[in-house]
Amino acid sequence: MSSALTFDAIRLPEACQVLRQEVRAFLAEQAAMGTFDPTGASKGPDDYDNARAFAKRVAAKGWIGMTWPKKYGGRERSFLERYVVTEECRIANAPVSVFFTADRQSGPTIIKYGSEKIKQDVLPRIVRGELHFCIGMSEPGSGSDLFAAKTKATKTDGGYLINGTKIWTSNAHKADYMIGLFRTSPATKENRRHGLTSFLVDMKKTPGISCNPIGQMSGLREFNEVVFQDAFVPDDHVLGEIDGAWKQATTELAYERSGPERFLETYYVLTELVRALGPNPDARSAEGVGRLVAQLHTLRRMSVSVAGMLEAGKEPVVESSIVKDLGTVWEQELPAKVRTLAAFIEPVPGNQPPLAKRLAFATKVAPKLTIQGGTTEVLRGIIARGLGLR
User: Fold this and answer.
1) Which end of the chain has fewer CB atoms surrounding its CB within 10 Å, N or C?
2) Of 107, 131, 155, which residue is a domain's last?
3) What DSSP string describes 257-295?
4) DSSP per residue over 167-187, as a string?
5) What is the pLDDT of residues 240-287, one digit of tens each?
6) 97: domain range?
7) pTM
């Protein structure tokens, strides 16, 4: 028996529209200051100082941890308002890497599963834009299949010793903390989900951790191999139940998979195509752009619907996986589709070089997008199980 899925139509309230204008004005000011390049091209080795400074400016506006409890520095605003901030940042190609993971999923995980001591220590610093988080889930040989995780956390006096390797960990070489999923007991034949535990790992102060950045053909090096060799994590850095972290890991990934960042990573090539086509495109180009915009509109409505589910306290694991699957396919195919439509643009001085530059960068970036938030194959397995098909 399959389960019914519904993406209810959500209309963003007036408060979101007011916020959108405020965010746009802020981002335009930051781009004009040279804080980031809205064209989509990288400025080189992470441009990390600018990204750190940008995080603190966003924090000063109250836009990090904005849905969190006030006692931890949050603003107790809605998931729909947070959606607007995320959407505008991605459209503007703003450098959100320093705070995005912490704001989107690490903070909510700590709020739900962390000790009060950890909450009081870590959450206010995230809200101030001071902490950078990474996520340790995927492993060599198992990819996004979290059931197959082999990196071990072995009990010792006062905590656990971590041994093993994580892979494709975004920005681990820069992060202050990792929320990692490690094996504390063997899986059972009856329950492959058993034996996984979530830990908060201090990436700066813990001996026995080495990060090896992985180069990409785009020139970026944000992915990492992270090797643990007797890395000690204290007992009070356990998040949630020992051996029972699978549920919280899937909840955490629901935050990661459903937002507009899951289909806007190469969006800038579409806006540049529209600019290059001008106000009077030919019929073929107009039809092609219309199809792409219609698909984007559908993805956005689904994503906003998931934000509404989160606002209602639901855990839309399957729905978020659908958004991520469809969104990744769309944003990966977008550069090639834009390139096809661009071939029919009448050459006019100045209308093609910017588009060519953005297309070249987006084409190199696109292959990595399937890794972020879970591979397509794993996502479709989650969707099939959710629909009762396997």
Assistant:
1) N
2) 131
3) HHSGGGT-TTTHHHHHHHHHH-SS--HHHHHHHHHHHHH
4) -S-TTTTT-SEEEEEEESSPP
5) 999 988 777 766 666 666 678 888 889 999 999 999 898 899 999 999
6) 14-131
7) 0.87
